[in-house]
Design brief:
Number of strands: 0
Order of helices and strands: HHH
Largest sheet: none
Radius of gyration: 13 Å
Helix content: 55-70%
Number of helices: 3
Shape: globular
Length: 62
Amino acid sequence: MGMNVRCEAMNDQDRSIWDHYSQGRSARQIGRELEVSHRMVQNRLNKPGGMKPAERRRGAAG
């Protein structure tokens, strides 16, 4: 249970980072606004090669 909540929080933060980045803000500006390290922001942006990954979707169960 706890891990799922953490993943949701990370996904919300990632979405927020990509939204700010698409508006032309730098990693430092994003970090200041979200109160996180600019290095963490850079790592999140560089992990998928600098391109926003597609939203994760699961198929309908059943």
